[in-house]
Specification:
heterodimer, A: 245 residues, alpha/beta, Rossmann fold, 6-stranded mixed β-sheet, 10 helices, 37% helix, B: 315 residues, mainly alpha, ABC transporter involved in vitamin B12 uptake, BtuC, two-stranded antiparallel ribbon, 11 helices, 69% helix, globular
C-alpha cells in the first residue's frame, strides 16, 4: 500500500481535536492522520461529526482543543483562504456551488489564489476532460445544474486549486447510483495522478472500496481505524454500515 | 413639450444621483445582509469635503472660480477635488467597517443594524462641530463652467448638466464592469452568495468586504460631490434634506431589488423620474409621497424588487 513507510510523517495529522458548538461537544479528542498519496476515508452516520472534522481542518470552525498539522506545520488557527494557498482544497458539504455565478465562473473561482495563467488554463482543460458534462454547460448559470452535475463541478473546481490534499465532503450525497459510480471512479483517478484525498462519506460501501485507510466515526469519537480492506470485512462495520450480517 | 423635456432632464439628473448612492446600500447588503445606515452620512461627508477641499485649494493657489476670465482654476480642478473626496471617504468607509462592523461579524444582524444607526448619529453630530463643518450652510465654488451648450425650445442644456449625469453614468458603468467582468468582482459575488464557501475558494473574505465598503463609500463621495455641484449650497450634516436623500436612495435600492447592482441603478432612475414627473404634472408638494408610495406598492406586490428574485429567505 502506498506510503506505508512508518518513518515518513503523515501529510495531514489531526491530534486530540475537540470542537464545541455552544454547550454541545461535537468532537471528542479526535485524532487521525492522512498519508501522502493515499485515499483516507472517514465514515459514520449522519451527525457523527464527519463534516465538523473537515470544517475544523480547513479552519471554518475553531477547535476548542487539539491541533491540525499539515506537512509538519500547525494550521490550527489558519483562516480557510490561507489553506488553499498551501495546497489544501475543500469541496464542502452540499457542494458549495455559487448558484448566482455561471459554471465557468465557478470553475475559475477554484483557481482564485493562483496567478500562473498558463498553468491555470492547462488545469482547466484537464478538469473539463475529466468531467465532459461540465464542459457542455460552461455558459449556463450554475444553479441550473442537476445534483450530479453540481457535484462534478464542485470536484472540478477544487482541482483548479491544484491541491496536494483534497478534502471531499460526501460527494455521493443525493445522487443516483450510476452517477455515484462515475464520481468514485474519478476520485480514484485523481488519487492515482498524485493527489492525496480525505474523503468523508455516509456511503461506507463505496468509500471503503476506493480508500486505502479508513476511520469510523461514532458520535464525535473515532470508534475504529484500520486498512479499508480490513474494515470492509469486519463484522462490526458490515453490520452497522454496510447493512449485511 | 418643453415641460416634458425639462422634467425628463431633471429626472435623469436626480435619478442618477439616487442610483449612485443606492449602489452603496445594495453592495453592502449583498455582502453582509444588513443596511448600512451610515452610508448617507458618507454622502454628506463627500459633499462637505469637496467644499472644503475646493475652497482651500483655490485660496492656496490664488485661483478664481472656474469659468471666470483670468486666474481661474483649470478645468480639471473639479476632477482633483472629486478624487480627493473619494479617497478620504474611502478611508472613512474602511475605518467604519473595521472598527464598527467587523467585530460584530458573528453577532445577530439586529446588533449590526443598531450599530449602523449609532455610526450614522456619530457622523451627523460630530459633523456639526465647529471644528468640522459647523451648522451653517455653505456654498461650494463652481467647479464646472455654467455655460449653456445648446437649447431645445426653452430647455437649456448646460455643461454642468452633462458633468453631473456623465460622471454618475460613467461610475455606474465602471462599477458594473468591475463586478461582472473582473476577478475581484467575481470574488464579491461569491462572498455575497456564501462567505464560508468563498473562503474555501481561497478568497480572503475580510479583504473583499473591506474593498466593498471602500468602493461604496467612494460612490457615496461622488454622489455628495455631484449633489453639491448641482445645488451649490451644502446644508449642515444633520439637515433633513440629507436624511431624505439617503432615504430615497435606500428606497431606490429596495425598489430595484436590494443586493442587486443593476437593480439599484434602475431603481434610482425610476425614483428620480417618478419624483420629477409627479411634481411637475401632479402636485409638487407631494414629491416625497410618490416615492414612498412606490415603495409601499413594491413591497406589497413585488417584495423582491423590480430585478430581485422572489425573496425566499434561506435558513
Amino acid at each position: 500500500m502506498a506510503g506505508a513507510d512508518p518513518q515518513t510523517p503523515p501529510m495531514l495529522e489531526v491530534r486530540g481535536l475537540d470542537v464545541h458548538y455552544g454547550a454541545i461537544q461535537a468532537l471528542h479528542d479526535l485524532s487521525l492522520s492522512v498519508k501522502k498519496g493515499q485515499i483516507v476515508t472517514l465514515i459514520g452516520c449522519n451527525g457523527a461529526g464527519k463534516t465538523t472534522t473537515l470544517r475544523a481542518i480547513s479552519g471554518i470552525v475553531r477547535p476548542s482543543g487539539g491541533g491540525v498539522f499539515y506537512e509538519g506545520a500547525s494550521i490550527t488557527a489558519a483562516p480557510p483562504y490561507r489553506l488553499v494557498r498551501m495546497g489544501i482544497a475543500h469541496s464542502p458539504e452540499g457542494r458549495g456551488i455559487f448558484s448566482n455565478l455561471s459554471v465557468s465562473e465557478n470553475l475559475d473561482l477554484g483557481a482564485y489564489a493562483r496567478s500562473d495563467h498558463d498553468e491555470i488554463a492547462r488545469d482547466r482543460e484537464r478538469s473539463l476532460t475529466l468531467f465532459p458534462r461540465v464542459r457542455e454547460r460552461l455558459k449556463q448559470n450554475a444553479g441550473t445544474l442537476s445534483g450530479g452535475e453540481q457535484q462534478m463541478l464542485a470536484i472540478a473546481r477544487a482541482l483548479m486549486a491544484r491541491p496536494r490534499l483534497l478534502l471531499l465532503d460526501e460527494p455521493s450525497l443525493g445522487l443516483a447510483p450510476q452517477i455515484v459510480q462515475t464520481i468514485f471512479k474519478i476520485i480514484r483517478e485523481i488519487n492515482e495522478r498524485g493527489t492525496t484525498i480525505l474523503l468523508v462519506e455516509q456511503n461506507a460501501h463505496m468509500a471503503l472500496k476506493v480508500a486505502h485507510y479508513a476511520y469510523v466515526l461514532e458520535v464525535g469519537r473515532i470508534a475504529m481505524a484500520d486498512e479499508a480492506a480490513v474494515l470492509e470485512k469486519s463484522d462490526a462495520v458490515r453490520k452497522a454500515y454496510l447493512g449485511v450480517g | 413639450m418643453d415641460q416634458f423635456l425639462q422634467t425628463f432632464k431633471d429626472g435623469i439628473a436626480i435619478g442618477s444621483l439616487y442610483a449612485l448612492i443606492a449602489l452603496g446600500y445594495t453592495m453592502v447588503y449583498g455582502i453582509l445582509k444588513f443596511i448600512n445606515f451610515a452610508h448617507s452620512d458618507v454622502v454628506v461627508l463627500g459633499a462637505w469635503l469637496s467644499l472644503v477641499i475646493a475652497r482651500q485649494a483655490e485660496a492656496a493657489m490664488g485661483w478664481g472660480a472656474v469659468g471666470t476670465a483670468s486666474g481661474a482654476a483649470p478645468w480639471w480642478f473639479g476632477g482633483v477635488v472629486l478624487v480627493a473626496a473619494m479617497l478620504l471617504c474611502g478611508v472613512l468607509g474602511f475605518a467604519i467597517e473595521r472598527l464598527a462592523y467587523k467585530p460584530l461579524r458573528k453577532a445577530p444582524r439586529l446588533n449590526v443594524l443598531i450599530t449602523a444607526i449609532g455610526v450614522s448619529l456619530l457622523l451627523q453630530n460630530s459633523g456639526q462641530l465647529p471644528a468640522f463643518f459647523g451648522t451653517k450652510p455653505k456654498s461650494i465654488p463652481p467647479l464646472v463652467p455654467d455655460t449653456v451648450l445648446f437649447s431645445i425650445g426653452q430647455v437649456q442644456f448646460r455643461v454642468l448638466d452633462f458633468a453631473v449625469v456623465g460622471t454618475a453614468l460613467l461610475f455606474m458603468i465602471g462599477l458594473d464592469w468591475l463586478v461582472f467582468r473582473t476577478k475581484v468582482g467575481r470574488a464579491m459575488r461569491a462572498v455575497s452568495h456564501s462567505p464560508t464557501n468563498a473562503g474555501l475558494m481561497g478568497i480572503p473574505v475580510d479583504r473583499v468586504i473591506s474593498f466593498t465598503f471602500v468602493l461604496g463609500s467612494m460612490l457615496a463621495a461622488t454622489g455628495g460631490f455631484l449633489w453639491a455641484l448641482k445645488y451649490t449650497q451644502v446644508k449642515q450634516p444633520a439637515d433633513t434634506s440629507w436624511t431624505l436623500l439617503g432615504l430615497k436612495a435606500f428606497v431606490a435600492a429596495v425598489v430595484g431589488g436590494i443586493g442587486n447592482i443593476r437593480g439599484a441603478m434602475l431603481g434610482g432612475l425610476t425614483i428620480g423620474m417618478l419624483e420629477q414627473f409627479g411634481s411637475a404634472y401632479l402636485r409638487s408638494s407631494l414629491a416625497d409621497v410618490y416615492v414612498f408610495g412606490l415603495l409601499i406598492l413594491v413591497l406589497l406586490f413585488r417584495p423582491g424588487g423590480i430585478l430581485g428574485s422572489a425573496a425566499v429567505d434561506k435558513v
